[in-house]
Structures are given as C-alpha cells and as structure tokens.
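Data availability (excerpt). The following record was deposited with the supplementary files.
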Amino acid sequence: MPASRLHRSLAALTLGAAVLLQAGCFAAPPNGPDGSSERVSVAMLLPPRSGLSPFSDDAFKLSRWRTAETLVQLDEAGDAQPMLATEWSRVDPLTWRFTVRDGVRFHDGTELTAAHVADALGRAVAASPAPRILDGVDLTARADGDDAVLVSTAVADPLVPQRLSSPQLSILAPGAYRPDGQVDPAGHGTGPFRLTAVAGTSGATLDRNDDYWGEPARAAGIDVSFVPDGTARSAALRTGTADVVEAIPPGQVPLLDPELVHEVPMPRTNTLYLNTARGPFADPAVRAAAREAVDRAALIAGAYEGRADSAAGLLGPALPWAAELRGAPDYTRALADRPAPGRVDGVPITLGTFTDRAELPEVAVLLEQQLEAAGFVVTQDVREYAFIEADALDGAFDAFILSRATVLDSGDPVAYMASDFGCAGGFNISQVCTPQIEQALERAAATDTGPERRAATMQAEATVLATDAVIPLLHERVIQGESARVDGVARDPRERDLITTGTTVGATP
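Predicted structure:
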C-alpha cells in the first residue's frame, strides 16, 4: 500500500448514495497485525493558512500531529508540566529560569541546546504579526549556560510557564528559520513524528521519529488530508477511508455508527452580550428581563440538535474545576443581589450575530422568539463576521450573540475575561465597566497559578454575571470521529493533542 494518502479527496455525497472516489482519494486502510507498522489516516477540517508557520494558528496542527514541541505542556487542569524543559523556577518577579531537557535531537539531527531555545523564542517575539499568546507581553529570552534559558517579562507575569506551552512558541531547529522570515517546520521539530512532506492545502505526511527523546510512537506515521466539506469528512469515517476525522457536523451524526462518534466539550461559550452603556439594556432591570427570557434547552435542541451543554456560567465543562467552584459562598453571594426582572412591553432592541459559524443565525432566530415572548420587539442584523465585528465592538447593537473561546493559548481564562469585561478590554462588546469587575480581574490576574488562581477566576466570573451584562447560553462541543481500528487518540478540549505516541491502528475487528 502507498505510504501516503495525501493526494486523495472525497466527492460530495448525497444521502444513501455510494461514496464517489475521485483520483487522489483516501487510500484503503492497510491491514496489519498490530499498530507498529501501520499508519494513521486523518481527515482535518481546515487546510494551513500560513504555510504551517508556528507563529500562526497553523501551529496547532503541528501540535496535534506531535511533530513540534514546546518547553512546557498543560495537563487537564491547565497546570504546566515538563516537555522540552524539565523544570523551572522564578528567579525574581520578572524572570524565570527553564532547564532544557538533555538528549533531545531535532529531526534534522541537530542537538537541542539552550541557545536554540532562546533563538526560537526570540524569533517568535520578533515575528510580524506576533503570536497571539504574546499580545501585550514584552518577553525576552537568553541562554543561561548550555542547559538553561532565562525568560523575562517587562512586568511580573505568573503565567509565563503556561504561555510557553502555546504551540505558537514551538521550538524548531535553526534550519527552520529562513532569511526571508519564512519558517519551514518540515524536518525541524523534536516530536515523535517527523513532518516529511506538505502538499499545499491538500495534505501532509509524517513518519515516526525513531530517535525521539521520549516514548516512541507506536504508529509508523500519519497521513493527513484537509477536507473542508463536512459531508465528505463524515463519509471518510463511514467508509473506513479515514481513521480519525475532525469536526463532524451534527447533522451527519445520525448517519454514522454511534460507536465511532465522540463528543468533546470545547472551551467555547455561545454568549449573549447586552449593551450596558446605552439603549434599553443600560437599565439593569431590563437586562434581568432578558436573562429570565432565555430558554437554553430550546436553543440547544433547536440549533445544536442536543449536542451542546447548557451554560451555568462563562466557563464550561472543558474546565471541570469551574462547576465545582460555583458552589462557593462568595460566588453565591455575588449573584444573590442581582436585580429582579423589570416589566418589558414592546421594548425595541437590535440583535446582531454573524454567519461564519453556521449555528449562530439559527440561535438568533430562536432567541428572537424567546425575547419577543417576553415583550421585546427584536430586529435582527446578521452579516459575515468581517463586516460586523467593528460595529459590535463600537456598541452599535443592543444585544450581540458571539461564539467565544474562553480559554486562550495560555490555558487560562483570565485573559479572556479581561478582554471582554475589563474597562480597557479590547473585546468589550457589552461596554461594561465597573470597579467591582476591575478589582476582581486584577486580583485574579495577579494570583499565582493553581487552586487560588482558579478560585479568584470564578469570583471574577460571578462578579461579571452579577451585572447581567452578559448571558451565557451554551457551551459548544466538537464531534470527533474514530474508526473501529484506531485506538489511543486524544480527545482534547483545547485542540492541541490528537495523535499521540500511544495511538495504534490495527485490522478492523
């Protein structure tokens, strides 16, 4: 069988029709006695947008393929764990020291050194645009001898280890960085799989790295195809021409074997932002009336076919500690004094959202019905995101529906809250600004990582919710497909992990 299934694509599929395989479609799965000599075929949603540059969102593909690695990785709770760095400590309020793992070689054979780490981080800092994880962060890195790196920030930042877990700060070999500023990750990572070929926006090929510093991969390699069409991705799972499939549309799930479908909670909340600066929702009692009008179960059933989680707060089940902390006395007290709903009778409001996420226009229709049943008169404005974002940020709408990532690249939700609800927040659609929220956000941001920071984060959530400036609606899920012949695939809410060293592929039972 050919080693790669890259140059294959699925034709559009009608219900009940056979899959039409065009030239260059997924190859038939190999049959072997174990996973050690088998390759994993993966159908991914989005093709690379920036040539797989680690400084872009393409970095998350490199992470999901386990070809590029960072100094630090995050555990399920979002706490920093060793990766290319074995340990770290805070030297002073502005400086951290990371010990670089010994015995690591890049895929081109170069031995990893502290100088290489400092150079890679420096290139990320100098990139234009800079990686998102470095927004507002003045970071420098320098080697401290042969085995350590000193990372400094202009102001004290307890999140430095978490920041260094971002795939956008992957450490690549010197040969990856070209004089023209472009970055080529092929053959220049440190992970258990070596990127050997990239076929533009069609696919990629990775082979097992037999010189990996950690546990070697069990699969012989990964064959990636980029398949933007959701029906085609679902067909690939149904016919067994892909082992792992990203982002199956909810409408395709009934056509699939339930044993092959796995729902993963996402750190993404579908939220209704209310304009607190002007218009009807400047009145807290009117905001409370909108809050009471929302029927989350109907939104989930109607727009998501039941494949979402009702939102009790800003942070959802992708952060399991959030629900546990909502019962804290301080959290409960913060919500106890919310105003009672006021009388609403014919109050006109504008409701905005965008078309780029397919479910949002349907959510808007259902939400309009719920709000009008409560006495509001709703006028919708639905456009492509590129043409509506500026108006939303300027406060042009009374209410705006947004699907919002609540955990950014550091794995910490405080930055999202500061952006959306801080007085100087760059994404403050609700136009909210209160001393109570500012104090709660500042306290959370200054607290060291761990249980105390999580408690402060939840108190900030409660302080925001107490204003009714925002109404969390639901938490989204991603639907991942895995064939019966694959095992050991990661189901990661942060979408950093997918194929692991333990992923195996065998003959279909």
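Summary of structural features: Residues 1-35 have pLDDT under 50 and may be disordered.
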